[in-house]
Write a structure and sequence with these properties.
Layout (H helix, E strand, L loop, with lengths): L1 E8 L9 E8 L4 E5 L6 H8 L7 E6 L2 E2 L8 H5 L2 E5 L10 H11 L4 H14 L15 H13 L5 E5 L7 H16 L3 E5 L3 H7 L2 E6 L2 E7 L5 H10 L19 E2 L23 H18 L25 H4 L39 H10 L47 H4 L22
Parallel strand pairs: 3-8, 3-9, 6-7, 7-8
Antiparallel strand pairs: 1-2, 1-4, 4-5, 9-10, 10-11
The chain binds adenosine-5'-triphosphate.
Length: 449
């Protein structure tokens, strides 16, 4: 589903790669934590998956597509298959909960009827059915993050990328967010989450990939946060997140090194990429049913670290010397290991599957949408690179006012021709690429609590 082959990313003007020869594979249905000190490369990793940026060398396949082969014009369509959640929520402050979530569907041209069904469903799933009319500032931080998650998954993305989604939340609120993410994962969505939250990682016992200065030093199934990352976290002063939350307990028992299944050969470029709609109503309904069923069922950079070479997915990951849990890895392939005890609200945990999914290149069901899409598509080279947004096929909604320019993401070099991104407004279809911004503050909003 996500595969990195010898991927290196070196930003312009820097000598040391942010990611250094990364080889890994993430299967469909997996829940993966990315851990590591600040600056270790977690966000760079997520940006590459989203095709917000290009690797300096190496190849990345996502959903069966070679990202190097996706043209700029098709990037928004590719991104429809990805949902993204950020630490700072990024809701639209002037829209209520329902409209924030509906917006994603509106911009990709979903019918009013579909929206009227899908939005309540997803709000139910995240536990906000009763607060659909609230504005973001009338919600707690945890509720705002639930809205952001609902917005990210309402289009049933195959992959959910979460960049420190609990970073602004207290431990018990974070635990609730993780329960929601578990449900989404139980519905079949692959989740990749970058985090500094050791308690969550330790509690959930999912696959853990640890980065140190851009290299993978650990890849464990049912892993814990690890001492290396924790030491780096403590050194960074982010001690608040170290506190254990209510109901969060440290794991018992050894972690298991991630055992990668055999590699698959991705489909040839151009294979089945033009005929199928990106997200069919049937597929969306099917996914919605799955999510609903799941919901029902649920009712460092480390100072002392010596990075080891990133392992090949074809071989077991090296156990990290600073990770007690990894010191005695159980030689049991994790895929057959019994699942860890469920979180507060149990959700069925699906087996990851190796099934390349081919992303169609363009929608066929809405010719008008294609015209609008083309109007909203611009070359990505050299544009101010903002933040990633959930689902991304820009298509203007008639009643949607123009949006102001988004804040530039300082981490993305706008002058770098390798940088590929649309502003948040552009991704959400609020504004044509390159169109002037207005003064409304309807762009990004951080926590309001
Ligand atoms: N646009 C950029 N230009 C130059 N260097 C960059 C850019 N973006 C990231 N970097 C550098 O790349 C390295 C990895 O950064 P990245 O943001 O991926 O780390 P991170 O693990 O996500 O950090 P954090 O936990 O603080 O979010 C850092 O050294 C960072 O300074």
């Amino acid at each position: 589903m996500i595969r990195f082959d010898h991927v290196t990313k070196t930003y312009r003007g820097t000598k040391r790669p942010a990611l250094n020869s990364i080889d890994l594979e993430i299967l469909r249905g997996e829940f993966v934590f990315l851990v590591g000190a600040s600056g270790s490369g977690k966000s760079s990793f997520l940006r590459l998956i989203l095709k917000e940026d290009r690797p300096t060398s190496g190849n990345i396949h996502v959903l069966g597509q070679d990202l190097n082969a996706i043209s700029n014009r098709k990037v928004p369509y590719f991104r429809r298959n990805l949902g993204v959640v950020f630490q700072d929520f990024r809701l639209l402050p002037g829209k209520n909960v329902f409209d924030n979530v509906a917006f994603t569907l509106q911009v990709i041209g979903k019918s009013r009827g579909f929206i009227q069904e899908a939005v309540p469903d997803v709000l139910q799933m995240v536990g906000l059915a009763e607060k659909a009319n609230r504005l973001p500032h009338e919600l707690s931080g945890g509720e705002q993050q639930r809205v952001a998650i609902a917005r990210a998954v309402v289009n049933k993305p195959a992959i959910l990328l979460a960049d420190e989604p609990t970073g602004n939340l207290d431990p018990s609120t974070s635990a609730g967010i993780m329960t929601v993410l578990e449900r989404i994962n139980a519905g079949g969505t692959t989740v990749v989450m970058a985090t500094h939250d050791n308690a969550i990682v330790d509690h959930m016992k999912r696959r853990v990939i640890e980065l140190v200065t851009g290299q993978i030093v650990r890849d464990e199934d049912q892993g814990g946060y690890g001492m290396t990352a924790e030491i780096a976290l403590q050194d960074s002063g982010l001690t608040a997140e170290i506190a254990l939350g209510d109901g969060l307990v440290r794991p018992v028992g050894p972690a298991q090194p991630h055992v990668a299944p055999p590699r698959y050969t991705p489909p040839m470029p151009g294979t089945n990429t033009t005929s199928t709609p990106v997200v069919t109503e049937a597929a969306a309904a099917q996914a919605a049913a799955a999510a609903q069923a799941a919901a029902q069922a649920a009712a460092a950079q480390a100072p002392a670290a010596q990075p080891v070479p990133a392992h090949s997915p074809a071989t077991p990951a090296p156990a990290h010397a600073h990770t007690p849990a990894a010191a005695q890895p159980a030689p049991v392939p994790s895929r057959t290991a019994p699942p860890a005890p469920p979180a507060a609200t149990p959700a069925p945990r699906p087996e990851p599957v190796r099934e390349p999914v081919t992303v169609p290149a363009a929608r066929s069901e809405q010719p008008d949408a294609r015209e609008q899409y083309q109007a909203y598509t611009r070359p990505v080279t050299g544009q101010t690179a903002p933040v990633a947004a959930p689902v991304a096929a820009p298509q203007a909604h008639p009643s949607t006012p123009p949006m102001p320019q988004t804040q530039s993401n300082p981490r993305v070099d706008p002058a770098d021709p390798a940088t590929e991104s649309l502003t948040l407004a552009e991704k959400l279809g609020l504004r044509a690429p390159g169109a002037p911004a207005d003064a409304a503050k309807d762009q990004n909003v951080g926590p309001t609590t």
